Amino acid sequence: MTTLLDGAIALAQAHETPWPRDPFGEPPAGGAPWGVHQDDPPPYNRLRGPVHARGPQSGVVWRHGQPLAAWGEPARADLTFSVAKTCLALLAGVAQADGLLPDEHEPVVARLPGIGFDSDHNRPITWAMLLEQTSEWEGTCFGLPDTVDRWRKVAQDPRPAGGPKGGARPLQAPGSHWEYNDVRINQLALALLHLLRRPLPEVFLERILRPLGGGDGLAWRCYDDAWVDLPGVGRVQSVPGGTHWGGGLSISSHDLARLGQLLLDDGAGLLPAGWVQRMRAPVAVAPFYGRLLWLNRDGQAFPGASRESVFMLGAGGHIVWVDPAHAAVVVLRWLDPAHHGTVVAAFADALADR
Prior knowledge:
Elements: H1 4-13, E1 58-63, E2 66-71, E3 78-79, H2 83-97, H3 127-132, E4 140-141, E5 144-145, H4 182-196, H5 200-209, E6 219-221, E7 227-230, E8 234-237, E9 248-251, H6 253-264, H7 275-280, E10 294-295, E11 310-314, E12 318-323, E13 328-333, H8 340-352
Antiparallel strand pairs: 1-2, 1-13, 3-9, 4-5, 6-9, 7-8, 10-11, 11-12, 12-13
Helix pairs in contact: 1-8, 2-4, 2-5
């Protein structure tokens, strides 16, 4: 007998992303080119780090901390694009647990002078602003100016589009304007590298994924030229917070479910008390967003999901949906964004039916 969950899985599998499976291959008939870098103005519309072929539409469902369903290739460590942003927020929590970030409202420059926060405009920027994407940081990070992602419009941002992407939108005071900007996210990753003084992939494996029982096949790759000299440590690479220009986090669906469960479990003792709650709190100037998490407070972003739900989202069709109302985590990989709403609604019906 076919269940609602079976139907939701079949619906997801019927709507694989239109991107080709080979990042350097031709799009399928009626498909779309691989990646998001093509939308950038020249000369920034190119890959700067390694990428690799992807698997099919895949996913897993966990309920009450236990696997409920899996399909596709859930053990495959696939690129996950901006889901890596949420992983940076988890690493900031690790830094706070270690006493390296006692106050996320402290200006970054107070502990890390000389890495891009010293100008009059950037000096007030706090860690919280970087995590909320309200920093308005100005500068260039590994050859990419922040202007390349100004005026960027992403699907879950309910506000109308502003100017043309890559245009020199006038800067606002740090903390007063929300903008989805991958260059600023890369600057956050660079700051965390300097703060933790260890490659972020090592810390992520050691402090987050391995304690959760995961980490097999994980890779977090850098741009080819993203090298940093850390005093007393040596030459290391700084990872990007996504795969906008290549590189980024490759991780399995099973491990994404583990990260979702970590949020459900309020950090599972791996993060400071209250850290996850602060990640889930709406940004004052962007109530649809938390700290590198998407929210559903008005029920409009993802109808069917509870209003307590939070989402990690990545280009190419990656969703990690964490729904406390159902004690559930739903991971969807390589799902056509045009069908995100209907597929999430189908899974919501399936969870409500169980």
